[in-house]
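Input/output pair, single chain:
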Amino acid sequence: MATVITMPRLSDTMTEGTVATWLKKVGDKIKEGDILAEIETDKATMEFESFNAGTLLHIGIEEGQSAPVDSLLAIIGNEGEDISALLSGSAAPKTEAAAPVAEEKTAEAPKSAELPAGVKVVTMPRLSDTMTTGTVATWLKKVGDAVKEGDILAEIETDKATMEFESFNSGTLLYIGIEEGGSAPVDSILAILGPAGTDVSGVVANFKVGGAVEAPKAEEIKTVPTTTNVVEPNSNNNTSGRIFASPLAKKIAQEKGINLAQVNGSGENGRITKADVENFVPGTAAVSTPVQALVEATSAVAAVKPFVPAGEVFQEEVKNSQMRKVIAKRLSESKFTAPHYYLTIELDMDNAIASRNMINGLPDTKVSFNDMVIKASAMALKKHPQVNSQWKEEAMIINHHVNIGVAVAVEDGLVVPVLKFTDQMTLTQIGATVKDMAGRAKIKKIQPAEMEGSTFTISNLGMFGIQSFTSIINQPNSAILSVGAIVEKPVVKNGQIVVGNTMTVTLACDHRTVDGATGAQFLQTFKAFMENPVTMLA
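Output:
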């Protein structure tokens, strides 16, 4: 039967599109994957490919014309097929829309059944170029909830990050196809939206799920019995006993030792937010003051008895996130396939400190030591491109462009935003870009494309007081620089012991591409730039 193809939503802000060029004409044979047209969005001109095979029976928007998203773009079907009913709107058409990156994809209607009026099938989106399966971390809506365009439906774990997934349709959530914790291939049925009360059992029965993995059963956490006062669980959470909380709220609660069952959620459907955890005040315990506790402890000394262990073994099994699995897989492959070796050097940071203070004294200017490390690394890589390489079995790739990845700790693991053409950026540009990308990475707003294409990586733990450490190479890079804290200590200058500031950096190298002498020469150049920052401004 004929398939109606609508104007796709090719960007998150797109409301209408313009057909720049038709690459097929009515009567042409279409194969799945053929480029039908070039469509101008509010951001770019993009090729629009067909996900169906057949004959192009109708073109609804001519070249140069614009139309809103979801307008009739074309009809594909069998040669000679009568499509008059579709053109007159008297039949419910089967529709196709493109699956934009990091956006909701509305699936085609199953071939064996028509979609009821107003019903949209939402499938597991492809949120990164390497994503093949996704895991639903959290549902923010439940069956029966009203959904508006732009509402966040769920948090989905990809192979790179946990991302918020918003709806581009309005309606009632009629069906959830993948429960929390469950994984499924891209394009599997994720949810169904439509008018309240619509029977979608036929749609579900005719949709090929494509191998969705059943969500694991929630595990009970055993708690140690106690005689202290018990605070009742949060009454704002749902009646099933499950606690809804954002990933960041869960992490903060774990760090602070807060029982989420005692926290009142202010978010949608009683969902616990970061602010709820940070503002939480524990209930009154049986021992109300430290003084009373001290008195009781002192009194107990008078009648010392042998200690009899009375606790319980307490363990918690935490399901590995998709990000954690990918980190484990990639770093294991790097460590066990690339022969790592490490070169460590100590830098005199006195001039760097003075230069930074001078730069930050200018109006509307602020750079960090990490920005200076990134700039010095980029300039040193231009002088030593062998360090900016990658290994392949048949050939070594020497990159003459410099794209530096900056490791950023996020709630569920680690991501590496990439500064493209870093060597062409000023210190202030580096600082602003790193701040922006790191901030968006921590709130899951960074795009997968912004974490691709690095030629060298920097990991800085100096802000945590770590003086020296080694890192595992971020493949396919050949090296990664580990940056420690600036330490004030006695140093020898001009034969005299004085107070100085030093910083230790360690370069991890892949011996297949970077020999020891090459790595050492890179560090010497890097050291010269860091110890004389004015040379980076030339």
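The chain is about 20% helix and 25% strand. The domain at 3-206 is CATH 2.40.50.100 (OB fold (Dihydrolipoamide Acetyltransferase, E2P)).
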